[in-house]
């Protein structure tokens, strides 16, 4: 937003430094230099999550640890984003911090909604339309999808959730292959996913799992194919 003319100023009237923690020092937002051409532009944003900006399900709490933030940093980031949202509410017509998608991309979703009036769409829906996924799934015997970490967060609009919904409409079973299976992943069984497999076959470090991902992926693919073949042979 700063690149588009939004000024984020501290108590001395100086521009804030980049970074989320710097927002804790925000004293005033000026829209005087906001590019007026933006009012004539319609923004449509594709996002793969529908988290709010702040709180237990917000950008800092959910995605901060994934990027290496410790609990103290998560708390500081969440407070800084909340402080930013408070100031935005003073100069903008609508407070969108709790709207779905505001926590996407570290809070960029909030900024796009608040300053640009952006309309949100699920990213998987946009991509599915572009590649004709619905037509490809219709009539298929099996759909295999995946992501790095398959957990309860997947329910908030990530790719496997969108793919499973499409497959479910056509009665096609879905198997997920993921780097790890996290807490709450089994909730997806009520939303079109029939089975889920983690790549590692045993304890290993993240570095080892990443370096051996091609081999692990082949192994899990063989496992799935053997189970699928057995199921079909028993049915016939």
Automatic annotation (TrEMBL):
What biological-process terms (Gene Ontology) are attached?
organic acid phosphorylation
Record carries keyword Transferase: yes
Entry superkingdom = Bacteria
GO MF: glycerate kinase activity
The record's InterPro entries line, in alphabetical order, gives:
Glyc_kinase_flavodox-like_fold, Glycerate_kinase, Glycerate_kinase_sf
Q: Which UniProt keywords apply?
A: Kinase, Transferase
Cross-referenced SUPFAM superfamilies, in alphabetical order? Answer: Glycerate kinase I
Q: What is this protein called?
A: Glycerate kinase
């Amino acid at each position: 937003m700063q690149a588009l003319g939004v000024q984020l100023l501290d108590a001395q009237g100086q521009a804030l430094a980049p970074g989320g923690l710097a927002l804790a020092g925000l004293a005033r937002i000026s829209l005087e230099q906001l590019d007026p051409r933006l009012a004539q532009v319609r923004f449509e944003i594709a996002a793969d999550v529908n988290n709010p900006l702040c709180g237990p399900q917000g950008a800092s709490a959910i995605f901060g640890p994934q990027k290496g933030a410790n609990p103290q940093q998560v708390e500081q980031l969440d407070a800084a984003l909340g402080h930013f949202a408070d100031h935005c509410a003073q100069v903008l017509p609508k407070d969108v911090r709790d709207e779905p998608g505001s926590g996407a991309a570290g809070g960029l979703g909030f900024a796009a909604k608040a300053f640009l009036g952006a309309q949100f769409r699920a990213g998987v829906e946009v991509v599915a339309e572009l590649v004709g996924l619905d037509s490809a799934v219709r009539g298929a015997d099996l759909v295999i999808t995946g992501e790095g970490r398959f957990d309860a967060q997947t329910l908030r609009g990530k790719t496997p959730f969108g793919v499973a919904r499409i497959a479910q409409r056509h009665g096609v079973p879905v198997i997920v292959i993921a780097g790890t299976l996290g807490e709450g992943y089994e909730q997806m069984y009520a939303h079109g996913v029939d089975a889920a497999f983690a790549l590692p076959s045993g304890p290993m470090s993240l570095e080892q799992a990443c370096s051996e991902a091609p081999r692990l992926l082949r192994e899990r693919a063989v496992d799935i194919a053997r189970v699928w073949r057995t199921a079909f042979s028993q049915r016939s």
